[in-house]
Amino acid sequence: MKARTLTFLAAVVILCAGYARPANAQNDSYTAMATTPGSPSGGQITFNFSITKWSTQDDIQRLGGILKDKGQSALLEELKNMDSGRIAKKGDTGNQIAIAEKWQDGTDTVITMITARRMSMWEQKSRAVSTKYPLSFLQVRLNANGEGKGTLVTSAAVKYDKKAGTYRLDPYGNGVTPVTNVKPAR
Known about the structure:
The chain is an alpha+beta fold and 186 residues long. It contains four helices and nine strands, in the order αββααβββαββββ.
């Protein structure tokens, strides 16, 4: 995925305006497959995500203001205190979803989630470059049956570009991972 598209996606997540969103999810749960080259399971990882609360427009604007005024570190601390659900690989405890948005695009439903990603003690102690990319981002597009596909960025940084007046999502490592077989959990 091109940086331009990622910039747009980050702007949608942080500043999406004009969409009516429900305040509470009724535990919307889905299963999906991520295609990762070189993974031990042949490139396919099954994961689940469950949303228990939708972020409000006020939440999004407040978080956008924190990023713009105080930077990514302050945003990260705020995200760690937010709980909109959980995303996890099969057999793992996973990550708490901080932001979850849902809106309609024609007949499709688009769900966007951001988490403060878990980092290993080694990663933190060694101050690896990856620690500058503390967020994960998942966006899925679902048809009327609740099935679809999406995009996953496992490690990303988000910045406010004062010159352009926009938010920018910068992926780390492999960048974007395709997500397929998204369907409601049974």
